[in-house]
Amino acid sequence: MDDTQPKEEAAHRSTERGDERRQSLVLAAYQIIAKKGFEGLRVREVAARIGVNIATLHYYFNSKEDLIRGVVEYLLHQFITVEAPLPAEGVQNALQKLHQSFADLQYQLQVAPEMFVVLTELHLRSQRDPAIQSMLTALNDGWQMHIEEIYREGLQQQLFRPDVDPHRAASWLIALIKGLSLQVVSNLEHFDFNLIATEFIAGFLNPPTKGEL
Amino acid sequence: MDDTQPKEEAAHRSTERGDERRQSLVLAAYQIIAKKGFEGLRVREVAARIGVNIATLHYYFNSKEDLIRGVVEYLLHQFITVEAPLPAEGVQNALQKLHQSFADLQYQLQVAPEMFVVLTELHLRSQRDPAIQSMLTALNDGWQMHIEEIYREGLQQQLFRPDVDPHRAASWLIALIKGLSLQVVSNLEHFDFNLIATEFIAGFLNPPTKGEL
DNA sequence: TATATTTTCAATCAAGTGCTTGAGTGAAAG
DNA sequence: CTTTCACTCAAGCACTTGATTGAAAATATA
C-alpha cells in the first residue's frame, strides 16, 4: 500500500502528462497567492490561467485546501533548494559561509520576491492551520540549524567572540532576514545586503575590529 | 469646509451614539482580521458580532473597504500611542531610551499580539493597496525617525562607537523587531526581549565591553 | 479492433458574498 | 400635532464561490 499519508491529494495515478498538469496548476496558484494573497485565490482563476476546466482542477486536487497544500510543498521545496549547501567551490570558512547565506537570500529576494510574500502569507496562516504551522516549523528549524552549525564552526575556528551563543546568533540572523524581507517586499526600504552582512557578522567577530567598518 | 478627504467614510453626521457604533464596528472588524486574516473578514460577521443588521453597518461605512480603512486608522493610532514618548519618569539617556523602546514592544507583543498580526496583514496588503502602502510608510518613517533620533543622541553623548550610522542602526532595529514579532506571532520561537535588547544595543556601544554580556 | 481507463468539459448546485431597498422606530424640533 | 432627524431592520438582489455531475473525448490496454 502506498497510503503514506492519510489525506491523499487526488485519486489519479501518476503519469507524465498528469504530473505536469498538477505542477502547472500548483504554480498558477502560487503566482496568484503571491499577487493577491490567499484572500484573492480562486480555484476558477487557477484553472483558467492554465486553460482547463474547473473540474479538471478538481480531478487533480480534491479540494482547494489540497491545492494549497501543493503550493506549500512547492514553496518549501523552492526554499530548501536555495538554502541547500552551495555548489562548493573550494572549502569555505564559517565567515565565508555566512556571507554566502546572505548573498543567497539577497539573490532570491531580487529574483523571486514572491517567495517571501507567500512565505509571509504562510506565517499568518500558520496561526490557524496546524499543518502549515508544522511545515513552517520544520523549515525554520532546518534553517536555524544550518546557521547555528556555521556559528559553531566559526567558534571552533576562533573566528567569533567566545561568548557568542550560536543559537541566539542564528535566531537573530533569521529574524533580521525576515524583517528585512518584509521591509523590502512592502517597498518600505531597500537594503544593501553586502553591507548588512558585513556589519552583522562583524558584530560577532573575535577581535573587536576597530575602524574596520 | 471640512472635506479634508475626498473619500468620506459615510454619509452620516457625527453624534456620540453614532461614533460609538462606528468604533465598535471597527473594533469587531479588527478582531476578526486578527483572528482570521483579511481572507476571513465578512461584513455580516462584523455586524453580527455587535448585534446589528448588515444594513446598519452599511449605514456607517459605505463599503467593506471603508470599514477596512477604519481598521487601519485604528491600528495606526494604537501603534503610535504605544510608540509615543514614555511618561517621562526623570530624564533618560539614549541607552535607557533604547531599552525602553524594546520594553514597550515586548509589552505590546505580550498584551496585544493581534496588533502585530494585523500589521503583518497590512504589510502584505500594502503591495496591492496604495492607500495602505502610504499609511504604512508614514508609520514606518515615524518609527524610524524616533529610533534614529535616539541613536544620534547617543552618539552625541558618546555612548556609541563613532562609526555607527543612525539610519542604518535604526533600520536594523526595526527590521529585527518585525522579524522577531513574526517569529513570536507564528509560535515559531519565543524570545527574551531583555536579553535581546541588551545584546543588540551592546553591539553598538562605544568601548567594546568585553565579558559584559 | 474492441475494451477499459484516464482526462476533459458544459452545466449545475447550495451556500455564501457585498450591498441595496423600502419600511419603519423613537426622540427632538417646528 | 406634524415634521424632521439619526438610526435600525427584514428581505432580497445580483453575483461569486467551491464543488459536483454525467456524458463525451482522448488515451491506453488487451
**N/C terminus separation of chain A:** 60 Å
Q: Per DSSP, what share of the residues of chain A sits in E-state strands of 2 or more residues?
A: under 5%
SSE ordering of chain A: HHHHHHHHH
- Counting copies of identical and different chains, the oligomeric state is homodimer
Radius of gyration of chain A: 20 Å
Considering residues with a beta carbon less than 8 A from a beta carbon on another chain, report the largest interface and each chain's count: A-B, 45 and 45 residues
Helix % of chain A is 55-70%
* Apparent shape of chain A: elongated
Main sheet of chain A, how many strands, which sense, barrel?
none
Total of DSSP H or I helical runs spanning 4+ residues of chain A: 9
Report the count of strand segments of chain A.
0
Specify the structural class of chain A: mainly alpha
Q: Pick out the low-confidence regions of chain A.
A: 1-8, 208-213
- In round numbers, the mean pLDDT of chain A is 83
Q: What is the element layout, followed by pairings?
A:
Two copies of one chain form a homodimer.
Chain A lengths: L15 H21 L6 H8 L3 H7 L3 H20 L10 H18 L1 H13 L4 H27 L9 H20 L7 H10 L11
Helix pairs in contact in A: 1-2, 1-4, 1-6, 4-6, 4-7, 5-6, 5-7, 5-9, 6-8, 7-8
The structure holds a DNA duplex (30 and 30 nucleotides).
